[in-house]
Amino acid sequence: MKGDIILRVIAKLLVPFMLLFALYVQFHGDYGPGGGFQAGVIAATAIVFYVLVFGLEAGRRLLPDWLAEKALAAGVLLYAGVGVAGLLLGGNYLDYFVLDADPVHGQHRGIFWVEAGVMLTVTGVMLKLFYMFADRGRDGEGE
Amino acid sequence: MAATVVAMVLQRNLLGVVVLFAIYSFLMATVLAGLDAVDVAMTEAAVGAGVSTVLLLGALHLTGSWEAKPLHRPALPLVLAAAVGAVLVYGSFGLPAFSDPQAPIHTHVAPRYLNEASKETGVPNVVTAVLASYRGYDTLGETVVVFTAGAGVIALLRRRRKGRR
Asked: For residues A18 and A62, is the Cβ–Cβ distance under 8 A?
């Protein structure tokens, strides 16, 4: 598939927009449909598409294995950390009202970081699984 | 959708089944969008039709794409599946009618969410407000589940690969 010029050009054109759309879904989730989970999956799909057209090595240069693994864990930590931040600022666990002087603004801030955590975890899981499957397939061919 | 399912059962080439799965997911996403559940529809389209198709294709690449002949006649499983389906349909008669405003689910916490959410959280999308704010613990649990499942699969695949070399 690597040699097909139409696929390569279309993929080069589309992937940035797919990633941009993922970010839009992520940060516009407060106002329209979407949120961390959907954005994470869309971002992962964009990179999977890139890998399908340009090969596994190119994808790994774009977003290496260790980064996907770190993102997987960092997302959960970020989410739990928002809860701890609430505790430190004198509220309950996962209480967003205390994150800012204005409670409504605090809610915004809490939801923003929580959604960022969800997105990191989901993208990390999807990509890491895809990399591992693709890798095993190539091992099988080599034997 | 029914036609897709029947085709899926009859199809013996697993590659075709995977493609039919993706079609089914897209149809399901349109149904969900029709029910005004846009957030769920988006997830269904991206996960069901996108990522899981790619993962299933990856698995087929490893295993080969023709279904093995069944070892015995599938009469008993067929009867069992039909019986469970009948029980579920019977149970669904007890549910309140679709879009009945007096149904319990619409009279418990939903009015409070719908009326107060934008005032209390300043977030216009009620789905996001409920997901991340009112149900913050649940969503944290979900994220941990995703993490644990992913970590488990990664551990399994990695060990197998090392063992083979």
From this structure: no
Nearest chain B CA: its distance from A9 CA (Å)? 21
Task: Report the C-alpha gap between B71 and B74 in whole angstroms.
Answer: 9
From the list B164, B117, B35, B40, the residue with the least C-alpha distance to A135 is B164
| Surface-to-core class of residue B15, CB atoms within 10 Å of its CB (0-12 exposed, 13-18 middle, 19+ buried) | middle
Query: What is residue B13's three-state secondary structure?
Result: strand
Pairs of CB atoms within 8 A across A/B: 137
Cβ atoms of A41 and A119 within 8 Å: the answer is no
Taking the model in full, what pTM does it have?
0.73
Out of B123, B131, B147, the one facing A72 most closely (by C-beta) is: B147
pLDDT tens per residue across span B42-85 = 888 888 888 888 888 877 877 776 767 666 677 888 899 999 99
Complex-level ipTM: 0.72
Q: Rounded to whole angstroms, how far apart are CA atoms A103 and A75?
A: 24
Please tell me the distance from the alpha carbon of residue B36 to that of residue B130, in angstroms, as a whole number.
16
